[in-house]
Amino acid sequence: MELHGTATISANGHLAVGGVDTVTLAREYGTPLWVIDEEQFRRNCRAFRQAFSSDLFPAGAVVLFAAKSLLALAICRIVEEEGLSLDVVSGGELHTALAAGFPMDRVYFHGNNKTQAEIDEAYQAGIARFMVDNLHELDLLEGPGRTGSGTRSGAGRVPVTLRVTPGIDADTHDYVKTGQQDSKFGLDIAGGQAMGAVKRVLDAPHLDLKGLHCHVGSQLFTTEPYAGAAEVLMDFAAEVRRRTGWVPEEIDLGGGFGVRYSNGDAPLEPEAFARAISRAIGKKVSETGLPFPRVIVEPGRAISATAGWTLYTVGSIKEIPGIRTYVAVDGGMTDNPRPALYQAVYEACLANRAGETVDGRGTGGGRTVGGSGTGGGHAAAEVFTITGRCCESGDILIHDIALPRPVPGDILAVSCTGAYNSTMASNYNRLPRPAMVLVNRGQVDVIVERETYDDLVARERLPVRLRRRASARRASAG
Ligand SMILES: *Cc1c(COP(=O)(O)O)cnc(C)c1O
């Protein structure tokens, strides 16, 4: 496992993140525990802000943090402080941003099936942009715009950007591909649906068409899909101008910037994406004579993933001689469904024994921890399968990871769990969701409390007739 962010190994051999001993964290706050490295989260925000604030973008650029990857009130505040805007996809995410006091003129509302109630609420709140995914949504948008109700300043036209499918088939897992023509998302350019939608928006007096959006997929490691999508969008914009005279103020290229979950992943710096996008748009600006648009990007995991760690306690260990050793932890697919959902690969180390196998000869000059297989006087690393505690054979967190032999009570720290872990968590098997702590420079703050058993039944109601039967049975039994 590679140390990243503020992670270090303390003199006592424990993994520390944000200047805090993770073994102490596990003891004081319990496990499973989501740990957010504030400094690393902020660094990732800044890397995107810097890459996209340069003169590569003559009309400016906006970085939206994709809230679906990691969201809490405290996260909203940090995102605001770092000067990023927010991409939300539901009334619940919008509500969280509102509750955090996040400036609504920096909120962009995505989603392929927004409800009328969500649209009305977002309109009242005065969000920056409706990212319109389909024609049905245009029907729903007629309500708020036409009546002119609401507390929006400069009342009137609803600012919309159209999500189109550029017909780009990104090289990633099928479940996170979104740019190809056969997708549930967006208005198809090739089939003419996008042009139809543009015309409809331009004809609607209550709608203000700002730009075009696409999102080609997630966990991408090359600049080509972004450059390609930028070119398709600019070509489409040129065609729209020819037919209608409209020119886009903004081009939004979505998120999906790849991160290093494990050794096989080689992510690019935000700079590389910024340069490629700027170059592709610049080329089309010269070809078409369109003005250089404002550029928007929507990183989610590239900001949140490497800021997160999950701490678990090792419990049962099942050795099947000659086949495999299963090491079970006290969480699993409930707090991290990604391995079961997309065969996602994670790395981990034993937080209380991280010093045991420090291996200075790790690949790529990175700081690595845990059995990399090179031995060299360190505790022998063997290969284990880390399983969760859910009643599913698919509840495997990590296949074949090299570690010093774990024993019950060890603390396993899985790295790079900041994205799509807490936001995808469930209560399967009635496991309460973990707490989330923010660590920074030796300070610890609980930003999400651990769910309790009472929380699990708090919203349940027992119909009176069932209650009566139960008490009748008890009475007759007594
Ligand atoms: C999921 C999503 C993102 C963020 O994706 P990451 O892979 O986390 O960067 C951004 N924009 C849209 C429209 C998305 O659906």
Structure description:
The protein is α/β, with parallel strands linked by helices and 478 residues long. The protein folds into 2 domains: 8-37 and 306-457, Beta Barrel (Lyase, Ornithine Decarboxylase, Chain A, domain 1); 38-304, Alanine racemase (TIM Barrel, Alpha-Beta Barrel). It has 13 helices and 21 strands. The strands form 3 sheets. Strands 4, 14, 15, 16, 17, 18, 19, 20 and 21 form a 9-stranded mixed sheet that branches. Helix 2 runs parallel beside helix 9 (270-288), helix 5 packs across helix 6 (135-147) and helix 8 (224-244) packs parallel to helix 9 (270-288). The longest helix is centred in the middle third of the chain and has 21 residues, at 224-244. It starts with 7 loop residues before the first strand and ends with a helix. The model is unreliable at 148-154, 358-365 and 371-377 (pLDDT under 50). Pyridoxal-5'-phosphate (PLP) is lined by residues 66, 68-69, 87, 110, 215, 218, 254-257, 298-302, 419. Residues 66, 68-69, 87, 110, 215, 218, 254-257, 298-302, 419 line the site of pyridoxal-5'-phosphate.
CATH T-level topology of the largest domain = TIM Barrel
State the end-to-end CA separation: 60 Å
Structural class: alpha/beta
Mean pLDDT: 92
Largest sheet: number of strands, sense, barrel closure: 9 strands, mixed
- Counted up, domains total 2
Point out poorly predicted stretches: 148-154, 358-365, 371-377
Number of beta strands? 21
- Count of individual helical segments: 13
